[in-house]
Design brief:
The chain is an alpha/beta fold. 47% of the residues lie in helices and 17% in strands. β1, α1 and β2 form a beta-alpha-beta unit.
Length: 89
């Protein structure tokens, strides 16, 4: 799963669902889905020993722009490609 600035509903976090391997991409200045949501998802993934990567973009809000947008895309493709390769092995 690749999460771009995704919100995390309290009800969802409280259920402690088993998450798939996840790439978290989030703007540090996001006012719609605060970066604390990314921290909560990271904590849940760590507790579940689920593979994950996280990148917090300083100065970015909800929806990444400019170099951050390109960096996020450059991270997402290899992350998903690696998982697909592992699944087919």
């Amino acid at each position: 799963m690749v999460g771009y600035s995704g919100p995390l509903l309290d009800e969802f976090a409280g259920q402690r669902p088993q998450l798939p391997p996840t790439l978290i991409l989030h703007g540090a200045s996001d006012r719609i889905a605060p970066v604390s949501h990314a921290d909560t998802i990271e904590r849940l993934l760590r507790e579940q020993s689920t593979p994950y990567e996280i990148k917090i973009y300083e100065g970015q809000g909800h929806g990444l722009t400019d170099a951050a947008q390109f960096d996020a895309a450059a991270r997402a493709a290899p992350f998903l490609g690696q998982l697909l390769q592992q699944a087919s092995s």
